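[Q] Does anyone have a clean C-alpha coordinate version of this?
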Amino acid sequence: MPIWNTGEECLDVEERAQLQLERLQSTLNRAYRNVPFYRNRMQDQGIEPSQIEALADLRQIPFTAREDFSENYPYGLFAVPLRDVVRIHTAQGTSLKPTVSGFTKPDLAVWREMVARALFAAGVSKPDILQIDVDPGLINWGRAYKDGAEAIESSVIPLTILTPEKQLMLLRDYKTSVLITSQSAARQMMHLVFRVNLNPNELALKTVILVGEPPDIEIQNRLRDELHVKPWVHYGLSEVPGPALAFECEARQGLHVSEDHCFPEVVDPATGGAVPEGEPGELVLTTLTTRAFPLVRYRTGDRVRLVPGACSCGRSLSRIEWLPTRTDDMRVIRGVKVHHQQILYLLERALGVLPPHYRFLIRSEDLRDFLEVWLKVDEALFSDEVKEMEKLCLRLGRELTQELGVPVKIRLKEEGSFHSSKPSRHIDDLRERLSSES
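[A] Here you go.
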Protein backbone atom coordinates (compact mmCIF):
# COMPACT_ATOMS: atom_id res chain seq x y z
CA MET A 1 0.00 0.00 0.00
CA PRO A 2 1.41 3.44 -0.86
CA ILE A 3 2.32 5.73 2.02
CA TRP A 4 2.14 9.51 1.73
CA ASN A 5 5.44 10.12 3.53
CA THR A 6 7.38 7.00 4.45
CA GLY A 7 10.04 9.01 6.26
CA GLU A 8 7.53 10.36 8.79
CA GLU A 9 4.82 7.69 8.90
CA CYS A 10 7.04 4.61 9.05
CA LEU A 11 9.81 5.71 11.40
CA ASP A 12 11.27 3.17 13.76
CA VAL A 13 9.53 3.51 17.15
CA GLU A 14 12.75 4.52 18.91
CA GLU A 15 13.58 7.06 16.22
CA ARG A 16 10.13 8.57 16.51
CA ALA A 17 10.39 8.76 20.30
CA GLN A 18 13.65 10.68 19.96
CA LEU A 19 12.08 13.01 17.38
CA GLN A 20 9.08 13.55 19.66
CA LEU A 21 11.29 14.34 22.63
CA GLU A 22 13.31 16.90 20.67
CA ARG A 23 10.16 18.56 19.37
CA LEU A 24 8.52 18.43 22.81
CA GLN A 25 11.47 20.16 24.44
CA SER A 26 11.40 22.84 21.75
CA THR A 27 7.64 23.33 22.27
CA LEU A 28 7.95 23.55 26.06
CA ASN A 29 10.80 26.05 25.83
CA ARG A 30 8.80 28.22 23.43
CA ALA A 31 5.68 28.07 25.60
CA TYR A 32 7.64 28.78 28.80
CA ARG A 33 9.45 31.74 27.25
CA ASN A 34 6.56 33.36 25.43
CA VAL A 35 3.28 32.37 27.10
CA PRO A 36 2.81 33.62 30.69
CA PHE A 37 0.01 31.10 31.27
CA TYR A 38 2.36 28.15 30.75
CA ARG A 39 5.30 29.75 32.52
CA ASN A 40 3.21 30.47 35.61
CA ARG A 41 1.68 26.99 35.56
CA MET A 42 5.10 25.34 35.42
CA GLN A 43 6.60 27.62 38.05
CA ASP A 44 3.69 26.89 40.38
CA GLN A 45 4.61 23.22 40.10
CA GLY A 46 8.32 23.92 40.46
CA ILE A 47 9.00 22.67 36.92
CA GLU A 48 11.25 24.03 34.20
CA PRO A 49 11.41 22.74 30.61
CA SER A 50 14.99 21.55 31.18
CA GLN A 51 13.63 18.98 33.65
CA ILE A 52 11.63 17.22 30.92
CA GLU A 53 14.27 14.70 29.84
CA ALA A 54 11.93 11.92 28.67
CA LEU A 55 8.44 11.72 27.18
CA ALA A 56 7.15 10.24 30.44
CA ASP A 57 8.28 13.40 32.27
CA LEU A 58 5.54 15.31 30.48
CA ARG A 59 3.14 13.98 33.14
CA GLN A 60 4.67 16.40 35.64
CA ILE A 61 3.12 19.35 33.78
CA PRO A 62 -0.49 20.37 34.56
CA PHE A 63 -3.29 19.89 32.05
CA THR A 64 -4.70 22.62 29.83
CA ALA A 65 -8.52 22.77 29.78
CA ARG A 66 -11.04 24.33 27.41
CA GLU A 67 -11.88 26.96 30.06
CA ASP A 68 -8.29 28.23 29.88
CA PHE A 69 -8.98 29.52 26.37
CA SER A 70 -11.71 31.86 27.61
CA GLU A 71 -9.56 33.11 30.49
CA ASN A 72 -6.74 33.95 28.07
CA TYR A 73 -8.94 35.37 25.29
CA PRO A 74 -8.05 36.40 22.66
CA TYR A 75 -4.26 36.14 22.22
CA GLY A 76 -3.02 35.14 25.69
CA LEU A 77 -1.93 31.66 24.56
CA PHE A 78 -0.08 32.82 21.43
CA ALA A 79 3.66 32.17 21.47
CA VAL A 80 4.66 34.42 18.57
CA PRO A 81 4.11 38.13 17.81
CA LEU A 82 0.90 38.87 15.93
CA ARG A 83 2.95 40.08 12.99
CA ASP A 84 4.03 36.46 12.44
CA VAL A 85 0.46 35.12 12.48
CA VAL A 86 -0.99 34.71 9.00
CA ARG A 87 -4.33 33.11 9.91
CA ILE A 88 -6.61 33.40 12.93
CA HIS A 89 -9.36 30.88 13.65
CA THR A 90 -12.17 30.86 16.18
CA ALA A 91 -14.10 27.89 17.55
CA GLN A 92 -16.84 27.37 20.09
CA GLY A 93 -15.85 27.66 23.75
CA THR A 94 -17.80 27.16 26.96
CA SER A 95 -18.68 30.84 27.39
CA LEU A 96 -19.45 33.86 25.22
CA LYS A 97 -15.76 34.08 24.40
CA PRO A 98 -14.70 31.77 21.57
CA THR A 99 -11.52 29.75 21.37
CA VAL A 100 -9.00 31.72 19.31
CA SER A 101 -6.04 30.01 17.63
CA GLY A 102 -3.42 31.36 15.27
CA PHE A 103 -1.13 29.96 12.61
CA THR A 104 2.19 31.02 11.21
CA LYS A 105 3.00 30.22 7.61
CA PRO A 106 5.00 27.11 8.65
CA ASP A 107 2.06 26.03 10.87
CA LEU A 108 -0.26 26.08 7.86
CA ALA A 109 2.25 24.00 5.87
CA VAL A 110 2.33 21.38 8.65
CA TRP A 111 -1.46 21.33 8.85
CA ARG A 112 -1.74 20.92 5.08
CA GLU A 113 0.73 18.02 5.26
CA MET A 114 -1.29 16.27 8.01
CA VAL A 115 -4.57 16.58 6.09
CA ALA A 116 -2.94 15.41 2.86
CA ARG A 117 -1.50 12.41 4.72
CA ALA A 118 -4.96 11.46 6.01
CA LEU A 119 -6.64 11.92 2.61
CA PHE A 120 -3.96 9.86 0.88
CA ALA A 121 -4.49 7.03 3.37
CA ALA A 122 -8.16 6.99 2.29
CA GLY A 123 -7.11 6.53 -1.33
CA VAL A 124 -7.71 10.14 -2.40
CA SER A 125 -5.50 11.11 -5.34
CA LYS A 126 -5.08 13.57 -8.19
CA PRO A 127 -8.00 12.39 -10.39
CA ASP A 128 -10.53 12.80 -7.56
CA ILE A 129 -13.13 15.55 -7.26
CA LEU A 130 -13.59 16.35 -3.59
CA GLN A 131 -16.72 17.98 -2.10
CA ILE A 132 -16.81 19.42 1.42
CA ASP A 133 -20.15 19.52 3.25
CA VAL A 134 -19.94 20.42 6.96
CA ASP A 135 -22.00 22.71 9.18
CA PRO A 136 -20.94 26.35 9.81
CA GLY A 137 -19.44 25.37 13.18
CA LEU A 138 -16.73 23.44 11.27
CA ILE A 139 -16.08 26.05 8.62
CA ASN A 140 -12.37 26.17 9.47
CA TRP A 141 -12.13 22.47 8.72
CA GLY A 142 -13.46 23.17 5.24
CA ARG A 143 -10.44 25.37 4.56
CA ALA A 144 -8.07 22.75 5.94
CA TYR A 145 -9.48 19.98 3.78
CA LYS A 146 -9.35 22.23 0.72
CA ASP A 147 -5.66 22.93 1.35
CA GLY A 148 -4.86 19.27 2.02
CA ALA A 149 -6.67 18.06 -1.10
CA GLU A 150 -4.93 20.66 -3.25
CA ALA A 151 -1.59 19.43 -1.86
CA ILE A 152 -2.23 16.06 -3.52
CA GLU A 153 -3.62 17.88 -6.58
CA SER A 154 -7.22 16.72 -6.28
CA SER A 155 -9.94 18.98 -7.64
CA VAL A 156 -11.90 20.63 -4.82
CA ILE A 157 -15.41 22.01 -4.52
CA PRO A 158 -14.82 24.33 -1.52
CA LEU A 159 -17.17 24.39 1.43
CA THR A 160 -20.40 26.22 0.64
CA ILE A 161 -23.31 26.21 3.08
CA LEU A 162 -26.19 24.78 1.04
CA THR A 163 -29.37 22.81 1.66
CA PRO A 164 -29.03 19.02 1.49
CA GLU A 165 -30.91 19.07 -1.81
CA LYS A 166 -28.38 21.49 -3.33
CA GLN A 167 -25.48 19.45 -1.95
CA LEU A 168 -26.92 16.37 -3.64
CA MET A 169 -27.28 18.30 -6.89
CA LEU A 170 -23.57 19.20 -6.77
CA LEU A 171 -22.72 15.62 -5.86
CA ARG A 172 -24.53 14.34 -8.94
CA ASP A 173 -23.82 17.05 -11.50
CA TYR A 174 -20.17 17.74 -10.63
CA LYS A 175 -19.26 14.03 -10.54
CA THR A 176 -17.97 14.21 -6.97
CA SER A 177 -15.88 11.14 -6.10
CA VAL A 178 -14.95 12.07 -2.49
CA LEU A 179 -17.36 13.59 0.03
CA ILE A 180 -16.16 15.00 3.36
CA THR A 181 -18.99 15.35 5.84
CA SER A 182 -20.27 14.40 9.29
CA GLN A 183 -21.98 11.07 9.94
CA SER A 184 -25.24 12.89 10.65
CA ALA A 185 -25.11 14.69 7.30
CA ALA A 186 -24.05 11.49 5.48
CA ARG A 187 -27.06 9.67 6.94
CA GLN A 188 -29.31 12.50 5.76
CA MET A 189 -27.74 12.48 2.29
CA MET A 190 -28.18 8.70 2.01
CA HIS A 191 -31.86 9.04 2.87
CA LEU A 192 -32.29 11.89 0.38
CA VAL A 193 -30.76 9.91 -2.49
CA PHE A 194 -33.52 7.34 -2.25
CA ARG A 195 -36.27 9.84 -1.46
CA VAL A 196 -35.69 11.62 -4.79
CA ASN A 197 -35.46 8.28 -6.64
CA LEU A 198 -31.81 8.74 -7.56
CA ASN A 199 -30.04 5.46 -8.29
CA PRO A 200 -26.69 5.45 -6.44
CA ASN A 201 -25.12 3.94 -9.55
CA GLU A 202 -25.66 7.30 -11.27
CA LEU A 203 -23.22 8.93 -8.83
CA ALA A 204 -19.45 9.02 -9.25
CA LEU A 205 -19.08 8.92 -5.46
CA LYS A 206 -16.69 6.25 -4.20
CA THR A 207 -15.33 7.63 -0.90
CA VAL A 208 -17.04 9.27 2.10
CA ILE A 209 -14.80 10.71 4.82
CA LEU A 210 -16.67 11.08 8.11
CA VAL A 211 -15.54 13.83 10.47
CA GLY A 212 -16.53 15.40 13.77
CA GLU A 213 -18.37 12.47 15.36
CA PRO A 214 -17.28 9.11 16.81
CA PRO A 215 -17.72 6.29 14.29
CA ASP A 216 -21.02 4.45 14.08
CA ILE A 217 -20.52 1.06 12.46
CA GLU A 218 -24.18 0.76 11.46
CA ILE A 219 -24.09 4.02 9.50
CA GLN A 220 -20.84 2.97 7.84
CA ASN A 221 -22.30 -0.39 6.82
CA ARG A 222 -25.33 1.29 5.30
CA LEU A 223 -23.11 3.68 3.34
CA ARG A 224 -21.27 0.66 1.92
CA ASP A 225 -24.41 -1.32 1.16
CA GLU A 226 -26.72 1.42 -0.09
CA LEU A 227 -24.43 4.02 -1.68
CA HIS A 228 -21.68 1.53 -2.65
CA VAL A 229 -18.94 3.74 -1.19
CA LYS A 230 -16.02 3.26 1.17
CA PRO A 231 -16.47 5.18 4.44
CA TRP A 232 -13.40 6.44 6.32
CA VAL A 233 -13.14 8.13 9.71
CA HIS A 234 -10.99 11.15 10.57
CA TYR A 235 -10.53 12.53 14.08
CA GLY A 236 -9.76 16.17 14.73
CA LEU A 237 -10.12 19.17 17.02
CA SER A 238 -10.67 22.83 16.36
CA GLU A 239 -7.94 23.72 18.88
CA VAL A 240 -4.91 21.54 18.00
CA PRO A 241 -5.05 22.58 15.19
CA GLY A 242 -7.93 21.08 13.21
CA PRO A 243 -9.16 17.99 11.34
CA ALA A 244 -7.39 14.76 10.44
CA LEU A 245 -5.11 14.55 13.48
CA ALA A 246 -5.90 10.85 13.38
CA PHE A 247 -7.10 8.83 10.40
CA GLU A 248 -8.06 5.39 9.18
CA CYS A 249 -5.89 3.38 6.83
CA GLU A 250 -6.89 0.48 4.59
CA ALA A 251 -6.28 -2.00 7.43
CA ARG A 252 -9.16 -0.51 9.48
CA GLN A 253 -7.39 -1.32 12.75
CA GLY A 254 -7.90 2.00 14.50
CA LEU A 255 -7.07 5.63 13.69
CA HIS A 256 -3.40 6.50 13.19
CA VAL A 257 -2.39 9.56 15.21
CA SER A 258 -0.02 12.03 13.54
CA GLU A 259 2.13 11.77 16.64
CA ASP A 260 5.11 13.38 14.93
CA HIS A 261 3.04 16.60 15.24
CA CYS A 262 0.77 15.88 18.25
CA PHE A 263 1.83 13.69 21.17
CA PRO A 264 -1.08 11.61 22.55
CA GLU A 265 -1.70 10.43 26.10
CA VAL A 266 -4.68 8.51 27.46
CA VAL A 267 -5.53 9.33 31.07
CA ASP A 268 -8.12 8.42 33.64
CA PRO A 269 -10.67 11.29 33.41
CA ALA A 270 -11.28 11.16 37.16
CA THR A 271 -7.68 11.09 38.43
CA GLY A 272 -5.66 12.40 35.48
CA GLY A 273 -3.29 9.46 35.84
CA ALA A 274 -2.15 7.30 32.93
CA VAL A 275 -4.26 4.23 32.10
CA PRO A 276 -2.78 0.87 31.05
CA GLU A 277 -2.29 0.44 27.31
CA GLY A 278 -5.49 -0.73 25.68
CA GLU A 279 -7.73 0.60 28.45
CA PRO A 280 -10.23 3.42 27.70
CA GLY A 281 -9.64 6.93 28.97
CA GLU A 282 -9.56 10.60 27.99
CA LEU A 283 -7.36 11.67 25.10
CA VAL A 284 -4.81 14.36 26.02
CA LEU A 285 -2.80 16.05 23.26
CA THR A 286 0.37 18.13 23.22
CA THR A 287 1.40 19.90 20.03
CA LEU A 288 4.97 19.24 18.91
CA THR A 289 5.39 21.39 15.79
CA THR A 290 2.89 24.23 16.24
CA ARG A 291 4.67 27.56 16.61
CA ALA A 292 1.94 30.18 16.99
CA PHE A 293 -0.41 28.33 19.32
CA PRO A 294 1.30 25.55 21.30
CA LEU A 295 -0.93 23.48 23.51
CA VAL A 296 0.50 21.46 26.40
CA ARG A 297 -1.45 18.49 27.72
CA TYR A 298 -4.82 19.62 26.41
CA ARG A 299 -7.74 17.58 27.77
CA THR A 300 -9.91 16.90 24.73
CA GLY A 301 -12.89 15.34 26.52
CA ASP A 302 -12.88 12.58 23.90
CA ARG A 303 -12.90 9.01 25.15
CA VAL A 304 -10.47 6.71 23.33
CA ARG A 305 -8.23 3.73 23.88
CA LEU A 306 -4.77 3.14 22.47
CA VAL A 307 -4.70 0.13 20.16
CA PRO A 308 -1.73 -2.09 21.08
CA GLY A 309 0.62 -3.70 18.57
CA ALA A 310 1.69 -2.80 15.04
CA CYS A 311 -0.66 -2.04 12.16
CA SER A 312 -0.53 -4.29 9.11
CA CYS A 313 -0.42 -1.25 6.81
CA GLY A 314 3.23 -0.61 7.69
CA ARG A 315 2.73 2.72 9.43
CA SER A 316 4.34 2.88 12.86
CA LEU A 317 2.15 5.76 14.06
CA SER A 318 0.17 4.99 17.23
CA ARG A 319 -3.50 4.14 16.79
CA ILE A 320 -6.58 5.00 18.80
CA GLU A 321 -10.09 3.61 18.92
CA TRP A 322 -12.48 6.56 19.12
CA LEU A 323 -15.25 5.66 21.57
CA PRO A 324 -18.80 7.06 21.41
CA THR A 325 -19.15 8.74 24.82
CA ARG A 326 -17.31 11.80 26.09
CA THR A 327 -15.74 12.44 29.48
CA ASP A 328 -17.30 15.91 29.89
CA ASP A 329 -20.64 17.68 29.47
CA MET A 330 -20.11 18.67 25.85
CA ARG A 331 -22.50 17.29 23.23
CA VAL A 332 -21.74 16.86 19.55
CA ILE A 333 -24.31 17.95 16.95
CA ARG A 334 -23.36 17.27 13.33
CA GLY A 335 -19.71 17.33 14.32
CA VAL A 336 -19.94 20.60 16.28
CA LYS A 337 -19.37 20.61 20.06
CA VAL A 338 -21.97 22.43 22.18
CA HIS A 339 -21.94 23.05 25.95
CA HIS A 340 -25.03 23.85 28.02
CA GLN A 341 -23.26 26.73 29.79
CA GLN A 342 -22.54 28.41 26.47
CA ILE A 343 -26.25 28.22 25.56
CA LEU A 344 -27.14 29.85 28.87
CA TYR A 345 -24.70 32.70 28.29
CA LEU A 346 -26.20 33.31 24.84
CA LEU A 347 -29.77 33.26 26.17
CA GLU A 348 -28.92 35.66 28.98
CA ARG A 349 -27.28 38.05 26.53
CA ALA A 350 -30.23 37.92 24.13
CA LEU A 351 -32.98 38.19 26.75
CA GLY A 352 -31.24 40.47 29.21
CA VAL A 353 -31.92 38.00 32.01
CA LEU A 354 -31.20 34.34 32.68
CA PRO A 355 -34.43 32.37 32.05
CA PRO A 356 -35.53 30.64 35.28
CA HIS A 357 -36.85 27.53 33.50
CA TYR A 358 -35.29 25.95 30.45
CA ARG A 359 -34.41 22.63 28.90
CA PHE A 360 -31.96 21.77 26.12
CA LEU A 361 -32.52 18.79 23.82
CA ILE A 362 -30.89 17.34 20.73
CA ARG A 363 -33.51 16.11 18.30
CA SER A 364 -33.65 14.83 14.75
CA GLU A 365 -36.26 15.81 12.18
CA ASP A 366 -36.12 14.43 8.62
CA LEU A 367 -32.79 12.94 9.74
CA ARG A 368 -31.38 16.41 10.38
CA ASP A 369 -30.04 16.87 13.90
CA PHE A 370 -30.70 20.15 15.67
CA LEU A 371 -30.71 21.73 19.12
CA GLU A 372 -34.11 22.46 20.64
CA VAL A 373 -34.37 24.99 23.49
CA TRP A 374 -37.44 24.95 25.73
CA LEU A 375 -38.28 28.11 27.64
CA LYS A 376 -41.12 28.43 30.11
CA VAL A 377 -43.83 30.92 29.19
CA ASP A 378 -43.30 33.67 31.75
CA GLU A 379 -45.04 37.05 32.07
CA ALA A 380 -41.74 38.70 32.95
CA LEU A 381 -40.15 37.60 29.67
CA PHE A 382 -42.87 37.11 27.10
CA SER A 383 -45.67 39.16 25.63
CA ASP A 384 -49.36 38.28 25.62
CA GLU A 385 -49.29 38.81 21.86
CA VAL A 386 -48.78 35.49 20.07
CA LYS A 387 -47.13 37.21 17.09
CA GLU A 388 -44.63 38.93 19.34
CA MET A 389 -43.69 35.65 21.00
CA GLU A 390 -43.31 33.99 17.59
CA LYS A 391 -40.99 36.80 16.49
CA LEU A 392 -38.97 36.41 19.68
CA CYS A 393 -38.57 32.67 19.13
CA LEU A 394 -37.44 33.20 15.56
CA ARG A 395 -34.95 35.87 16.59
CA LEU A 396 -33.52 33.75 19.39
CA GLY A 397 -33.28 30.75 17.07
CA ARG A 398 -31.38 32.75 14.45
CA GLU A 399 -28.99 34.22 17.00
CA LEU A 400 -28.18 30.89 18.61
CA THR A 401 -27.81 29.18 15.22
CA GLN A 402 -25.31 31.80 14.14
CA GLU A 403 -23.35 31.67 17.39
CA LEU A 404 -23.29 27.89 17.86
CA GLY A 405 -22.89 26.88 14.23
CA VAL A 406 -25.72 24.29 14.42
CA PRO A 407 -29.48 24.53 13.74
CA VAL A 408 -31.44 25.78 16.77
CA LYS A 409 -35.19 25.88 17.37
CA ILE A 410 -36.84 27.73 20.29
CA ARG A 411 -39.99 26.32 21.86
CA LEU A 412 -42.16 28.08 24.48
CA LYS A 413 -43.58 25.58 26.96
CA GLU A 414 -46.02 25.56 29.84
CA GLU A 415 -44.80 24.77 33.34
CA GLY A 416 -45.98 21.15 33.10
CA SER A 417 -43.42 20.46 30.38
CA PHE A 418 -40.57 20.71 32.89
CA HIS A 419 -39.86 17.69 35.06
CA SER A 420 -38.41 19.69 37.94
CA SER A 421 -38.42 23.18 39.36
CA LYS A 422 -34.63 23.13 39.01
CA PRO A 423 -33.25 23.62 35.48
CA SER A 424 -31.30 20.72 33.98
CA ARG A 425 -27.53 21.24 33.91
CA HIS A 426 -26.97 19.21 30.79
CA ILE A 427 -28.24 18.63 27.25
CA ASP A 428 -30.61 15.70 26.70
CA ASP A 429 -29.88 13.68 23.57
CA LEU A 430 -33.18 12.47 22.11
CA ARG A 431 -32.04 11.75 18.58
CA GLU A 432 -33.71 8.98 16.63
CA ARG A 433 -31.88 5.71 16.50
CA LEU A 434 -30.77 4.51 13.09
CA SER A 435 -32.90 1.39 13.35
CA SER A 436 -36.07 3.53 13.30
CA GLU A 437 -35.31 5.12 9.92
CA SER A 438 -36.47 2.42 7.56
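[Q] Thanks! Anything notable?
[A] The chain has eleven helices and 19 strands.
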